[in-house]
Amino acid sequence: AQSVSQHNHHVILSEAASLELGCNYSYGGTVNLFWYVQYPGQHLQLLLKYFSGDPLVKGIKGFEAEFIKSKFSFNLRKPSVQWSDTAEYFCAVIPLNTGFQKLVFGTGTRLLVSP
Amino acid sequence: DTAVSQTPKYLVTQMGNDKSIKCEQNLGHDTMYWYKQDSKKFLKIMFSYNNKELIINETVPNRFSPKSPDKAHLNLHINSLELGDSAVYFCASSQDQGDTIYFGEGSWLTVV
User: Could you report the per-residue pLDDT of B77-102, keeping only the tens digit for each?
Assistant: First the structure.
């Protein structure tokens, strides 16, 4: 089945460590790609998105992601995490060559940053 | 000014009851959605409306009935609530299909 995979379900890092969260999707054709963050007890907020152009996109709070079309990947990175980055991170994809374009989420990665 | 607002934020109710969650967006978007987040944090689309017309219905039990009186509102009515309906329900909107989706703050539903 077509899907979005986030291989890391739980990640624990110390402050100042570098972060990379993996995201792979299985849809062929053109896709729009997103990373959303959900802080504890809060709603989903958009971190960054890729529609076209430069495959390296920068988002809020120092996050960036790289779209590698050949690998069907859109990994999220941050060079130095902070305690306040503790949250759930969701990769999401909208496949554009389908009849109804809907946002499909990965299963999420829970990041815990220890001070 | 909240872009996508939904009420109530918290709802505790007994099995068998009927309840509604209201959603409004002031972004001028044409498309609105309901997503369900289960206890494992998994997010799945339930419904999508474009200009008041239903365009996505993801095999949701017919106890769930969305209603869109106008393109700025998408309400969710749930009949005969079951324990398994306990979840967080997120309303969302986008300008069009394929565009960035903006989420409301969620409605935490607990069925006891």
Answer: 999 999 999 999 999 999 987 889 99
A90: which chain B residues are within 8 Å (Cβ-Cβ)? 43
Instruction: Please state the length of chain A.
Output: 115
Residue A113: partners with Cβ closer than 8 Å, 6 or more residues away: A12, A13, A14, A15, A17, A81, A82, A83, A84, A85, A86
Q: Is A112 a residue whose pLDDT tops 90?
A: yes
Q: Does B42 touch chain A (CB under 8 A)?
A: yes
Could you tell me which residues of chain A have a Cβ less than 8 Å from any Cβ in chain B? 32, 34, 36, 38, 42-46, 49, 88, 90, 94, 96, 100-105, 107-108, 110
pLDDT surpasses 80 at A99: no
Report pLDDT for B110.
97
Q: Are A24 and A68 in contact (CB under 8 A)?
A: no
Inter-CA distances, A25 with A10, A31, B86, Å: 19, 9, 29
The size of the A-B interface in CB pairs under 8 A is 49
Check residue A1 and give its pLDDT: 61
- CA A65 and chain centroid, separation: 7
B45 touches chain A (CB under 8 A): yes
* Residues contacting B60, CB < 8 A, separation 6+: B46, B47
- Nearest residue on chain B to A105, alpha-carbon basis: B43
Among residues B31, B29, B23, the alpha carbon closest in space to that of B7 is found at: B23
B1: pLDDT confidence band, cut at 50, 70 and 90? low
